[in-house]
Design a protein that fits this description.
With 531 residues, the chain is α/β, with parallel strands linked by helices. It contains 15 helices and 22 strands. The protein has two domains: 345 residues, LCP protein (Aminopeptidase, 3-Layer(aba) Sandwich); 125 residues, no CATH class.
Length: 531
């Protein structure tokens, strides 16, 4: 029987090892030598051993990879990072805050057949039962620090050096994090990668400038910490639309939570969008042919990223080229609300609902049956369908879909998504109307009504006849607040994040309902716009 650990793997760290490995595979013999050097110098962890013994049953040969973003102001040996660097360059507070919280937890599911990768972010404040920590209920981000602290107490009298005590106690933190995540989601974790605050900065520094896109301008002033105020803010100021960030701004972009409508939940979408933008940049700019950039990336990965000791980077490098083409969709798992427990604000969740959603998205469980389509009336208002939908005719006989967005990147990304769904696509462009629209609209010209109805079902809207639309064309105008519009399997309706779980998008007649998600999906393959 084939070993279930072999097969497609995906992105390392919170950022770049995917593209690094893809670059290694596609470059010269000299770069292949560098790959060997990379593999030999990686920091490896044995923290999967206990997690594998306690893992949920495996249902197929797919691979689940956990990306861990550690919010620690310490180096690998437990030493404080330089104060002037943390406080003045990064505006990330002092080494006394942050602890060993895991502020980014993303699970990437790679199907056994190498198809579309599904990425799920777990909000850091989800209140769950920990495994491998103290077994009690905590915010999921705290499992690492609780287990690490307990290990330090246990190992403290054994005469270990400071660096060895740090290494062993972090192993306990990693093990608890992996076990807690896999118990919460109900799926086994096959591999993991961890990067800390300085690692993220170093990676961003190696590839800056990095383009990101915002739906709205941001101004996040720094507030000093006092006895009566916890302080905060990142100092980030950016306009709406696309901006090019240096490493310091990139860190602020993924860390900001104040002055965002949904706080940490919007920050999760920022992390997803940043990953997409970095991979897109490295692919578009031909980094695989730039040995200087590759060397910098290699040095960063070796110094700052920890991976499990079962991860075969050679297998990964052989699979990575298929994963840098944008065939990845990020979703954020839903919460049920907010609650104050023990003086802490937490996200409440329904573990059974989460496991059902994960199994459905990972293809392990069929979705609940969709309600049967009601018979269509003989006649209806203008712009609505008056008969059951018929199978789409061949593409050459169908109307062309033009897409307009607040940015060229947003329009292009949605056009690609529509093409994947089989719609004939045409023009993509920027439209001022997209910046003013509160909802995505679908208009159509003469002879394009049937195609418009098929397209409109994606957004849960009603198409309308438009004198401005050319004959044989459908015109989609994306709302600014829709961000990266939902892909074929996204359960989020256009319209942006909400404080509670986002409702599922309106499915086409006879289709299976999609699971609810926390805000819109973020689709890789471009520069997605987020809040």
């Amino acid at each position: 029987m084939a070993d279930p650990r072999t097969g497609p793997l995906t992105v390392v760290g919170r950022a770049l090892a995917a593209t690094v490995s893809a670059a290694v595979l596609g470059a010269s013999g000299l770069v292949w030598y560098e790959y060997r050097q990379l593999d030999g110098g990686m920091v490896k962890s044995g923290a999967l051993a206990e997690a594998r013994r306690n893992a949920p049953p495996r249902l197929d040969r797919s691979v689940n990879l956990l990306l861990i973003g550690l919010d620690s102001r310490k180096d690998m040996d437990g030493n404080d990072l330089p104060k002037e660097f943390v406080e003045e360059e990064l505006h990330a507070g002092s080494s006394e805050i942050g602890g060993y919280n895991t502020n980014a937890l993303i699970v990437l599911h790679i199907p056994a057949d190498g198809g579309k990768v599904t990425a799920l972010s777990v909000p850091r404040d989800d209140y769950v039962q920990t495994v491998g920590a103290d077994g009690r209920m905590h915010k999921i981000k705290e499992a690492y620090g609780i287990a690490k602290g307990a290990a330090e107490q246990r190992l403290g009298g054994r005469g270990l050096s400071r660096s060895e005590l740090e290494r062993q106690s972090r192993e306990a933190g990693r093990s608890a994090t992996v076990q807690t995540v896999q118990a919460f989601l109900g799926v086994p974790i096959d591999h993991f990668a961890e990067v800390n605050l300085i690692g993220f900065y170093d990676i961003a520094k190696a590839v800056e400038p990095i383009q990101v896109c915002l739906n709205n301008p941001v101004d996040d002033p720094i507030v000093a910490r006092t006895a009566n105020h916890e302080g905060g803010g990142t100092g980030l100021r950016l306009p709406a639309g696309i901006s090019s960030l240096d490493a310091r701004q990139a860190l602020s972009f993924v860390r900001q939570r104040h002055h965002l409508t949904n706080g940490d939940l919007d920050r999760t979408h920022r992390q997803q969008a940043f990953l997409s933008s970095v991979v897109y940049k490295l692919k578009q700019q031909g980094v695989i042919g730039d040995l200087g950039q590759l060397q910098r990336l290699f040095d960063v990965v070796k110094k700052d990223v920890v991976i499990d000791d079962r991860w075969n980077l050679l297998d990964f490098a052989q699979q990575a080229p298929d994963l840098t083409g944008g065939n990845v969709e990020f979703n954020t798992l839903p919460i049920t609300g907010f609650k104050n427990i023990g003086g802490q604000e937490v996200n409440t969740v329904d573990p059974e609902q989460i496991r059902r959603i994960v199994k459905q998205l990972f293809g392990h469980e069929p979705p609940p049956p969709a309600p049967a389509a009601a018979p269509a009336p003989a006649a209806g208002p203008a712009g609505t369908s008056t008969a059951p939908e018929t199978p789409a005719p061949p593409a050459k006989e169908r109307a062309t879909v033009d897409v307009y967005g607040v940015s060229a990147a947003a329009a292009s990304a949605e056009s690609e998504a529509l093409a994947e769904l089989g719609h004939p696509v045409g023009k993509t462009a920027v439209s001022p109307a997209a910046g003013r629209a509160k909802a995505t609209t679908v208009g159509y010209g003469t002879g394009a009504k049937a195609e418009a109805e098929r397209v409109a079902a994606r957004y849960g809207v009603t198409p309308t006849a438009s004198a401005a639309a050319p004959a044989g064309h459908v015109v989609v105008t994306l709302a600014r607040t829709s961000g990266a519009t939902p892909g074929p399997t996204s359960g989020a309706a256009p319209g942006g994040s909400s404080a509670g779980p986002a409702p599922a998008g309106t499915p086409a007649a006879g289709s299976a309902p999609e699971p609810p998600m926390q805000g819109p999906a973020v689709r890789a393959g471009g520069i997605p716009c987020v809040d």
